Amino acid sequence: MKFPLKWEFPGGKIETGESKEGCLRREINEELNIDITIRKVLTMVEHHYADFSLQPYPFVSSLQSGEVKALEHTLAIWVAIDQLLDYDCAEADLPIINEYIAYATSIK
Hints:
This protein is α+β, with helices and mostly antiparallel strands and 108 residues long. It has helices at residues 20-32, 94-106; strands spanning 34-41, 47-48, 53-54, 59-66.
C-alpha cells in the first residue's frame, strides 16, 4: 500500500498479453468482487512521485454484476460525483477525478 491514508481508484499493472480494458476488469474483480462494463476511455495520466512514477489508464465504467466487497483494501465506497473532491485522494487520481466530473456533468 503506497498511500495508506489516501483514497485511490482500484487498478493495477497490466499483465503480459492483457489489454488495458481486460486489466481493469480483472483488477476490479480481484479488488472489489464485481464485474464491470466499460463505458468510456478517459485521458491517460502520467504522474511522478518522489520515488516512482505512474501512468494510470482511466475508464468510466458501470456495475455489471456482483456486490462491492473490499477484498484487498480496508474499505471501498461509492461516492456521489459532487462529493469526489471532498476526499483526500492520491495526487495521480486528481486529474482523473476532474475529467470525470466534467464528463459526467456534460451528459446530464
